[in-house]
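Service request form, structural biology core

Requester: graduate student, group of Dr. S.
Request type: structure prediction, single chain
Budget code: on file
Notes: please return the result as structure tokens.

Sequence provided:
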Amino acid sequence: MQEIWKKFVYPLIEDKKHDVEEDTYHRHIENQLMLLGWEPWNGEIIHKQSLRIGNRNRMEPDILVARDDEYQFVIEVKRPNHIQQKEDINQLESYMRQLKLNTGVYIGEHIEVFYDKPNTNQVISVFKLAIDLEEKRGARIVGLFSKDNFSKENIDNFCNERLQEMERQASLNKIKESLIANAQIQISESLRPYLMDKYGNAFSEDEIKAMLSQLRFTVSTNGVNHTPVTLIQTVTQTNPIQSNYIIKCHLTRNANAHGLFNIKDQTLTVLEGSEVNSKHLTAAVEKKRAMQLEDYTILQAGKRIVKKDVVFKSPSDASDFCVGGSSNGWDTWKDEQGRELNEYRIYDGTRKSDARFDTNRVAEPHKFYRDFWKKFRNKLESTGVIPTLQTPRAQNWYNVRIGRSNILVNNICNTQKNFVSVRLYLRNPVVAKYYPALESRKNKINLALGCEPKWDTNPKAKDKTIGISYDSDLTDPDKTEEALNWLVQQTIVFYDVFSKEVKEI
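Core staff response, request fulfilled:
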């Protein structure tokens, strides 16, 4: 089963690396369902079937899987680098309830099984797993959703078992929360008799009590795998950590790593207990990474676990270590809200140069991004200049393709530091061919753009950019409108100039 899982997810992993469009990802998922025995020529894999709802409305589920003319489950598809939103699950839930299906599957940046338990207000997530060759639970998905093994009764039983497991875990979590909440009292009271017995001849009970009162005990989890392990740490009350510049982050691509990103110096610390890929994905990093694995990790139950905190000079260096090959850590690492570390990246020239965030910041950035890019797309579409535009999403960027693979006009809206920017973005596979050729015509291009953009804003990065920015106050609707108009105008200029330039190379 695990081998079938690897065959199933391999094309999806490649799609994520290349950031394919949703339609391409959709087709590949349908192809991979055939590995599980489902046959489109027998009407078992149904692509975007239009179904009537009532007298006037219709719905169009992404993928329906059927057998003997009866729907078995429904799949909601999103792009492989999408960040799941509440409306995605609401959409899946509506399909499940309209079709009277207890089971629905979300496939985007991960795979997630949802169950519509009778007499509940909303569907429940019962199983979530990474799109990863080494995801050991993948065999379970293959076993459940293979045509030969599939039955609604088996799926219902599985989902109910998962609900029971989740309830048990919730009960354990309450115990853990109680331990965390009362750690100071419980640990102090436990230590006092031990310290009195060991040091009572030299110190009075009041002195030992006073010493204990100067310590703060906390309980945390180590973040390894899926089962938390409780650790006890002592923290002195002096010199508290200045967390204003420290961002908690995580990485799930080919790993399960946790880190701390320092906004001031742009370093990233991979934390003890993180799981990293035991394999080297590219020969170029094999020698260096073999030494890193030996120095920084230990082998536990066949997994490579970081044995001590490791500081890397950039998120990309940390990502290379965790993933096992070349990767862009600025979009691979995510903060606790699921935002890329690009949100906190310091650029020289195209972004504000200091690491301090503006005090005026958008209160609900995800909602703001969704509305901002909808307006942006509408304004851009009304000009008729760019033939194909992507669907706006609640994220801090919006890409416009210019007719060459791995080259695009990348628009940024940064609510943390109140600016927007537009840049030509060349991904690593095409940099060697295109960037020197463009740079050789730098003066001509700058003249055509009508400005002097910052060329190669991050010389150490393998990807290359050419861009400009516009400072604003995105909490002010009037200034936001001005920033939108500027971004639309500059996007058209960048599209017009660079689409012609790259075609000549």
